[in-house]
Design brief:
Elements (H helix, E strand, L loop, with lengths): L10 E8 L10 H15 L9 E4 L15 H8 L5 E2 L10 H11 L5 E9 H7 L17 H4 L7 H16 L3 H15 L13 H6 L2 E3 L2 E2 L8 E10 H4 L7 E10 L16 H9 L11 E3 L5 H10 L8 H5 L18 H4 L6 H11 L13 E6 L3 E8 L2
Parallel strand pairs: 2-3, 2-4, 9-10
Antiparallel strand pairs: 1-7, 1-8, 4-7, 5-6, 8-11, 10-11
Helix pairs in contact: 7-11, 10-11
């Protein structure tokens, strides 16, 4: 069956960059951003003058614990860029919103080369105020989704995702050791990533002995705050072939929005609205889940990885826990190598942009000790409140 020529078919990834990750960094958020952006531009074989589109997720957010300290406008001026299109703040499909917007801008003819970045300095923010990442802290009044959480002392996203983990355990009989396999695998992968925060091996016994943060999530089920920036260059397909790197094709994309952040929950807490993103993605390609060589699956908390594996059809409902158990299937030599950079659990929280960066590293064969042999297709998922997914391939 052939599929229509969707917008993403007209766009390729042509370069990536990532600053040195710190916990904390001795550099400002703007300097880290410039480092990542300059790397990505050079990686593509372009110059700053070639960049005619520029955006970030979600735009500058002041006083939010280092969540998004740098915006596109100030970075544009700092780098001397002169884009014809600059993306607005992207709430939309959450973390992947800037990427989806960049694809649409190129496909609509607004620009040829869009630079997308994601910068955080949450590690520095937490040094200044240990509770900076907690919901509603420092405010006289909480609003929006926080008004449904904070009055019940659910002051961290961990509390919300623990509900999903507990429901998943109860419905499917999943066990802590199975969830722990994701954390153990992430640490093993991070050993091959010089830019990962945590590279020391982790055993399942050490995972089980770690403290419980909010039942049933343990310390190693939670991702880690960092300072750093990741940047990605997207280019129009008809010019991508002339650049430095072999173009990485965007085979398909999918997106969906959930209402968890607004306090509206539906279903039985054992699946995500991300399932709609998965359905959309596979409806836009002739490829199937069995064709995926490597996967970079969002892991803000390890339970999200199980839920995303099922949402993308890489595992059937209720079977992701048994699939990851023991780690052999998700290791480098397994049938679906998973989060080969170490993911957010071990490499650091880039809100999913590190996953797209690592997907490109793998498809270009630049993974070194963590390289998946013969990788040609990669599934990427992103988000825990709004959901985006990409299927990337290299010829």
């Amino acid at each position: 069956m052939s599929v229509p020529s969707y917008p993403e078919k007209q766009v390729c990834i042509t370069g990536v960059g990532q600053s040195k990750v710190g916990r904390p960094s001795d550099k400002s958020a703007l300097i880290l951003t410039i480092e990542a952006c300059e790397q990505a531009i050079a990686d593509a074989g372009l110059t700053a003058a070639d960049i005619d589109g520029f955006t970030t997720y979600p735009g500058p957010v002041q006083g939010a614990g280092g969540f998004s300290p740098v915006g596109a406008t100030e970075t544009m001026f700092a780098m001397g860029l002169a884009p014809t299109w600059i993306g607005a703040s992207t709430e939309g499909h959450a973390h992947m919103g800037a990427i989806i917007s960049a694809i649409q801008a190129i496909a609509s003819g607004l620009c040829r080369h869009v630079l997308v970045f994601r910068t955080v300095n949450q590690a520095t923010a937490r040094l200044a105020a240990h509770d900076s990442a907690l919901l509603g802290k420092g405010s006289l009044r909480v609003e929006g989704g926080q008004s449904w959480n904070v009055p019940f002392n659910a002051i961290s996203p961990a509390h919300l995702w623990a509900l999903y983990a507990q429901a998943y355990f109860q419905k499917y009989g999943a066990r802590a050791e199975q969830l722990g396999a994701i954390a153990v695998n992430s640490r093993a992968m991070a050993a091959g990533n010089p830019n990962a925060i945590y590279r020391k091996p982790l055993t399942i016994d050490e995972y089980m002995a770690s403290r419980v943060i909010t039942t049933p999530l343990r310390l190693f089920d939670c991702d880690t705050h960092i300072d750093g920036s990741t940047a990605i260059v997207f280019s129009r397909r008809d010019v991508a072939g002339d650049l430095r790197q072999p173009p990485i094709h965007i085979e398909a994309m999918g997106m969906s929005i959930g209402a968890l952040g607004l306090g509206h929950i539906s279903g039985d807490f054992t699946e995500l609205p991300a399932r709609r993103a998965g359905d959309m993605l596979w409806s836009r390609t002739d490829l199937k889940p069995k064709d995926v060589d490597v996967a970079q699956i969002y892991d803000g908390f390890s339970i999200l990885t199980l839920l995303w594996l099922e949402a993308l059809g890489l595992c059937k409902p209720g079977e992701a826990a048994s699939f990851v158990e023991g780690g052999s299937r998700i290791g480098l030599g397994g049938e679906l190598p998973l989060n080969t950079s170490g993911g957010q659990l071990s490499a650091g929280r880039f809100h999913g942009y590190g996953h797209t960066h690592e997907a490109c590293i793998q498809l270009w064969g630049r993974g070194g000790d963590r390289q998946v042999a013969g990788a040609r297709t990669c599934a990427v998922s992103n988000g825990g409140f709004g959901y985006g997914a990409l299927l990337l391939r290299r010829d």
